[in-house]
């Protein structure tokens, strides 16, 4: 390795970047064309026939969760909070993947042939609940696309003479081309190659930067130079936990349950492979993202200022400053792979939502035209890409975007999970609880009402209840209802003595917890006396394949007609 440079950032040059992009997107396009069919199947375009094997599904889940925003946000967490920042980011994110699988098994059991979670909510409750979940996913996926384009634009602008605007257009065009061709099938197949490239590059790049900047002596010298505070040196920083770890636990749990990109892979993988798939993705995500976040920690100890004051520039800045051209190219491929793997997942998720929840359920499964569905799906991808490009020009802070969307989905977590287990929940309870949670969450999250006086005490009380709700939900999947209630009650009681007068100082955390608690309280209180006794077998009969070619493969169980039951669901 060469000695650490003077601070100038090495660039790959326009030709070098173009060649790397042609190699990457040319390869993914070739893979997409190779699996294309003369007559595309609408259901395969959305869920690949519900029969993806372990290797591809585990790689796809890992690649989708390790997006460029995760890398950039983990680096930001390391730079902001020190050594505990990447741990609080990567560890909790990894554990949330693990917490999905028990709920995933239940979801697949009641809806084995579904395409979206919103489609299942239509069968369970009716149109308003479906549109709430679909609408939140449209917003979330567009924001996710935007953040990935921002990451790609920042990378290309940093490591080449091309501008940020050139970068976001190139990334958007490359992802759109290969995903448009074969939809979800292209997404999961290319994910396998992308995750191999990401993991291989991370193993080389992180140690390389570490030893170039001085190895273990970096931490001694950084502390001696006053570049870090005592809190940033600590693995058990309360500042890092309250501002990063705790809000991220709540946010990522919501991502895990409400995010269509995750649900789509849940519906696509073979049902008997759900557990090993999610366990493997947990390990892969945690190790990679925590490792990448150490680049931010190194930047902090070195006393580096983010270029142009933008923390989104830290990762390419570290790579371009301390690595030779060959490793810069490797890092470039790693970041492009991570952002592309999630961007194509967002495009596939958006197309599935519009194909299924806007078109398919509006005309009825029996009347839906698979060819028209495919056309609608592809048009959706084009429109979504254009929208994300427009929003990307604002260059939002990626970490703020992630936490905001996760908290927004927090309003839906309890109503969605409970709808798969509790027969009493009604459409009215679902809808009102989500709206009520949003009404309280927004002024808390954005400090529209100052957190003082009775309002602050009320918010803190809700946040304390929210701690119990979050831990109770996490416990319920693995241990069942009784242990979940006990753990949730103990957690609330434990936070009660010090929560008042304390939680008001952490608006992001309080907003997330309030979203959980309000949706839980309203949904529970409106449902507990309900006389509804929902038959979960109805869901599998209302959801299912749209393409007639697959009707024999996924036969409809005996019972009332899907059209009649869809009408009943809408009435509910």
TrEMBL record:
Protein name per Swiss-Prot or TrEMBL: Na+/proline symporter
Localization, UniProt: Cell membrane
Catalysed reaction, written as an equation: L-proline(in) + Na(+)(in) = L-proline(out) + Na(+)(out)
CDD domains hit by this protein: SLC5sbd_DUR3
TM segment ranges: 12-31, 52-75, 87-104, 131-158, 164-184, 196-220, 278-302, 322-343, 375-392, 398-422, 429-449, 455-477, 484-503, 509-527
Organism the protein comes from: Brachybacterium sacelli
Topology within the bilayer: Multi-pass membrane protein
Region spans: Disordered: 548-572
UniProt xrefs under Pfam families: SSF
Keywords of the record: Cell membrane, Ion transport, Membrane, Sodium, Sodium transport, Symport, Transmembrane, Transmembrane helix, Transport
Family annotation (PROSITE patterns): NA_SOLUT_SYMP_3
Protein family according to the UniProt entry: Belongs to the sodium:solute symporter (SSF) (TC 2.A.21) family.
PANTHER family, per the entry: SODIUM/PROLINE SYMPORTER-RELATED, SODIUM_PROLINE SYMPORTER
Lineage: Bacteria, Bacillati, Actinomycetota, Actinomycetes, Micrococcales
């Amino acid at each position: 390795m060469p000695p650490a440079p003077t601070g100038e950032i090495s660039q790959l040059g326009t030709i070098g970047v173009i060649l790397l992009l042609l190699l990457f997107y040319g390869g993914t396009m070739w893979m997409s064309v190779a699996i294309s069919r003369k007559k595309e199947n609408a259901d395969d375009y959305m869920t690949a026939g519900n029969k993806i094997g372990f290797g591809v599904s585990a790689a796809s889940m890992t690649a989708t969760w390790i997006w460029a925003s995760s890398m950039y946000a983990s680096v930001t967490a390391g730079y902001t909070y020190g050594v505990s920042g990447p741990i609080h980011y990567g560890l909790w994110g990894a554990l949330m993947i693990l917490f999905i699988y028990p709920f995933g098994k239940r979801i697949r059991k009641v809806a084995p042939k579904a395409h979206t979670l919103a489609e299942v909510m239509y069968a369970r409750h009716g149109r308003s609940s479906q549109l709430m979940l679909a609408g939140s996913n449209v917003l979330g996926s567009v924001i996710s696309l935007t953040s990935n384009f921002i990451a790609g634009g920042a990378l290309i602008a940093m490591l080449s003479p091309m501008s940020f605007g050139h970068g976001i257009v190139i990334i958007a065009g490359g992802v759109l081309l290969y995903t448009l061709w074969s939809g979800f099938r292209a997404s999961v197949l290319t994910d396998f190659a992308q995750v191999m490239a990401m993991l291989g590059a991370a193993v080389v790049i992180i140690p390389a930067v570490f030893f170039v900047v001085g190895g273990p002596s970096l931490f001694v010298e950084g502390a001696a130079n006053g570049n870090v505070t005592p809190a940033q040196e600590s693995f058990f920083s309360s500042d890092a936990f309250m501002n990063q770890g705790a809000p991220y636990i709540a946010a990522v749990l919501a991502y895990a349950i409400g995010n269509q990109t995750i649900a789509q892979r849940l519906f696509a993988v073979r049902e008997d492979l759900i557990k090993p798939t999610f366990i493997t993705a947990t390990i892969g995500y945690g190790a990679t993202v925590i490792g990448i976040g150490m680049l931010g920690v190194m930047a902090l100890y070195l006393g580096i200022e983010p270029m142009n004051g933008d923390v989104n520039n830290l990762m390419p800045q570290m790579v371009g400053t301390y690595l030779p051209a060959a490793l810069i190219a490797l890092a470039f491929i790693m970041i492009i792979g991570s952002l592309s793997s999630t961007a194509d997942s967002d495009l596939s998720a958006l197309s599935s939502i519009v194909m299924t929840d806007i078109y398919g359920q509006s005309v009825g499964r029996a009347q839906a035209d698979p060819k028209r569905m495919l056309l609608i799906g592809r048009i959706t991808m084009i429109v979504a890409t254009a929208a994300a490009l427009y929003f990307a020009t604002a260059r939002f802070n990626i970490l703020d975007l992630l936490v905001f969307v996760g908290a927004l989905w927090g309003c839906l977590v309890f109503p969605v999970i409970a709808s798969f287990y509790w027969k009493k929940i009604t459409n009215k309870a679902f809808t009102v609880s989500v709206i009520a949670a949003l009404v309280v969450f927004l002024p808390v999250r954005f400090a529209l009402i100052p957190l003082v006086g009775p309002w602050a005490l009320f918010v803190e009380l809700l946040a304390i209840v929210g701690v119990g709700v979050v831990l109770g939900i996490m416990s319920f999947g693995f241990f069942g209802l009784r242990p979940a209630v006990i753990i949730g009650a103990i957690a609330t009681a434990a936070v009660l003595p010090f929560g008042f007068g304390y939680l008001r100082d952490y608006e992001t955390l309080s907003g997330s917890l309030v979203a959980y608690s309000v949706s839980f309280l309203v949904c529970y209180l409106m449902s507990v006396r309900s006389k509804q006794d929902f038959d979960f077998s109805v869901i599998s009969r209302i959801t299912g394949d749209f393409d007639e070619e697959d009707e024999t493969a996924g036969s409809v169980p005996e019972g009332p007609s899907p059209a009649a039951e869809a009408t009943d669901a809408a009435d509910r």
